[in-house]
Write a structure and sequence with these properties.
The structure holds 2 protein chains of 2 kinds.
Chain A (H helix, E strand, L loop, with lengths): L2 H15 L14 H4 L4 H15 L14 H12 L3
Helix pairs in contact in A: 1-3, 1-4
Chain B lengths: L2 E2 L7 E7 L3 H12 L4 E4 L11 E4 L2 E4 L8 H9 L2 H4 L2 E4 L2 E4 L4 E4 L3 H9 L6 H13 L10 H8 L4 H15 L7 H14 L1 E4 L2 H15 L3 E4 L3 E6 L4 E6 L2 E10 L3 H8 L7 H8 L6 E9 L11 E5 L6 H5 L5 E7 L11 E8 L1 H5 L3 H19 L6 H4 E7 L1 H8 L13 H11 L3 E3 L9 H20 L2
Helix pairs in contact in B: 1-9, 1-18, 2-18, 4-5, 6-8
The chains are: A mainly alpha, B alpha/beta.
Chain lengths: 83, 468
């Protein structure tokens, strides 16, 4: 998967978790939490969906890597580029 | 209706969930949606744990429906369905009546700030600071203070304010002024965000809708299925023995009481001596007594509020609130709007209780004490519903013994364990590979919202353990 694919995959997952949020204007570099009504339960959902859809494991110690869309993609790239 | 007994189940699952309280139910559903095969086993004939109901004559009595925080809407929408979350509505009439004050509130932050700065004459800055402080509290930086110390800092000497802030939470989760402040802060903040909510259609519809969803997602749901053993092979958990039959599983989640799970069900040798002694030291939370009052067909109750926190005690006192000599009662009033299409009223009076006060009574004394509690409750209720004695046609009492009989909880606990149960529950899977616990521990994982969310948190751990 390319960076763009990974970014879209993450956006798709978040959109499914928060169906009422507009994902169009997301700033790549700003914390997701500041732009969306994302709580800690939602982050768990993202982690579980990544595991289910792409067999990617995000250990608890790495949760902070999911801070912005950019950092999330950067973190996931080595785990997902071969998919 | 779920199938009774374990005849016809598969011989191996990814996960077996023991107990169908809201934690077990939500955990099972989340795992099934993640693609895992799940068997849910409930010892009782009905799902829901303490989120339950029962029928008498033409009445349906809800045991724990009033009420939960707004967060339940999102949790139910995400982990169950939009159809189910769409039935959650606000209860606006929350009343307090005690010797120190009488008031009605929507029990949310806006209204509470108005009350505290107006009627209770606290300056705006202190109130703002209190709300900011409580809201910022989280589990990861617990400062070790107690609830009592927290109140003393912000509202020194104001036992009226302590009562306003604490009485509903004590009723909701059994916490006392000696519990960690964080256990109060999280629950209070959850309620304060928007107020108190309930489910239109009643507990029976709620649980039936959850069951339908579980079946749709492929969970094998079995009632009257009592787990006798959790099997440990010296290395990891491999299954359970239920109704005398062995069923294998890659993982087991227990939604049974924490101490029952570890000290009674789990095979010997699975726990280290240290973990075992820490588990033995965990204190059980208190139980409850309830009085259920059914109103005759054709009779009605004028609106008196949805949830009435009443007390005749001079001051807030958690020891008094637990006493068998009941001074504090919370009346949940269920109007016909709760179950549209049925013109029924019921009232449930709840008090916190200690199991030991009821455990060893002779049968004769037990019946006499139950009758006295029922009569005393009607006396108190006459203040709000003056003709209650002539318009009711059903009166029934549940004691800690009743709660124990139906849930099998240690000492009939209504709110799981005290705070020290939380690390045991959370770290269990690190101690015993493949075994997880979800359920009321430490108050913050308690109540409908806490229980459901904890089920999801544990589902994530189980899913991780099972691997990709």
């Amino acid at each position: 998967m390319t960076k763009e694919d990974i970014s879209q995959a993450v956006i798709d997952i978040i959109q499914e978790i928060l169906p009422d949020e507009d994902m169009g204007g997301l700033d790549q570099e700003k914390p997701l939490r500041d732009q969306l009504e994302l709580d800690s339960m939602d982050f768990l959902d993202i982690v579980m969906e990544l595991r289910k859809r792409y067999s990617v494991e995000v250990p608890e110690k790495d949760y902070m890597e999911l801070n912005t869309l950019q950092s999330t993609v950067q973190y996931l790239q080595p785990k997902m580029e071969s998919l | 209706m779920a199938v009774r007994g374990v005849k016809g189940v598969k011989d191996k699952y990814d996960c077996i969930v023991i107990g169908a309280g809201l934690g077990g139910l939500t955990c099972a559903n989340r795992l099934a949606r993640a693609g895992r095969s799940v068997l849910l086993l409930e010892q009782h004939s009905q799902l829901g744990g303490l989120a339950t109901w029962f029928r008498r004559k033409n009445h349906i009595f809800d045991v724990a429906l009033h009420g939960f925080p707004v967060g339940m809407i999102k949790t139910v929408r995400k982990y169950w369905s939009k159809d189910i979350s769409g039935r959650i509505v606000q209860l606006k009439g929350i009343r307090f009546d005690n010797p120190q004050f009488q008031l009605q509130t929507t029990y949310d932050k806006v209204d509470f700030i108005k009350l505290l700065t107006g009627r209770f004459k606290v300056d705006q800055q202190t109130v703002d600071n209190f709300f900011a402080h409580v809201r910022a509290m989280n589990f990861y930086d617990d400062d070790g203070r107690t609830v009592g110390e927290l109140f003393e800092e912000f509202f020194p000497g104001r036992d009226d304010i302590v009562r306003l802030l604490m009485e509903p939470i004590t009723y909701a989760n059994g916490s006392t002024l000696n519990d960690p402040a964080i256990s109060y802060g999280i629950v209070f903040s959850n309620f304060m965000s928007k107020g108190v909510f309930t489910f239109i259609g009643g507990t029976d519809l709620f649980i039936n809708m959850l069951e339908e969803e579980l079946v749709k997602n492929g969970v094998d749901v079995r009632t009257k299925a009592l787990v006798e053993r959790i099997i440990y092979d010296g290395d990891k958990i491999t299954g359970v023995v239920v109704n005398g039959e062995t069923i294998r599983a890659g993982s087991v989640v227990s939604n049974a009481n924490l101490k029952t799970t570890l000290l009674d069900l789990l095979d010997d040798g699975a726990l280290s001596g240290k973990f075992r002694s820490e588990t033995e030291a965990v204190r059980i939370n208190n139980s409850s007594s309830q009085v259920y009052i059914g109103i005759k067909e054709g009779e009605k109750i004028e609106p008196i509020g949805d949830l009435l926190f009443t007390s005749v005690a001079e001051k807030f006192d958690t020891a008094k609130m637990l006493s068998k000599d009941v001074t504090s009662r919370t009346f949940s009033v269920y109007y016909p709007e709760l179950r549209p299409g049925q013109d029924k009223y019921t009232i449930v009076s709840s008090s916190n209780s200690r199991y030991e006060d009821w455990a060893d009574l002779s049968e004769e004394q037990y019946q006499a004490d139950k009758k006295a509690l029922a009569e005393d409750t009607l006396d108190r209720l006459e203040k709000y519903v003056p003709n209650i004695r002539s318009i009711h046609d059903h009166l029934e009492v549940a004691t800690p013994r009743t709660f124990k009989r139906y849930t099998l909880h240690v000492d009939g606990s209504s709110f799981g364990t005290k705070f020290e149960g939380l690390p045991i529950s959370q770290d269990l899977h690190k101690e015993v590979a493949g075994l997880f616990h979800t359920g009321s521990v430490a108050i913050i994982m308690s109540g409908w919202l806490g229980a459901a969310n904890y089920g999801v948190i544990v589902a994530n751990e189980v899913d991780r353990y099972l691997g990709v």
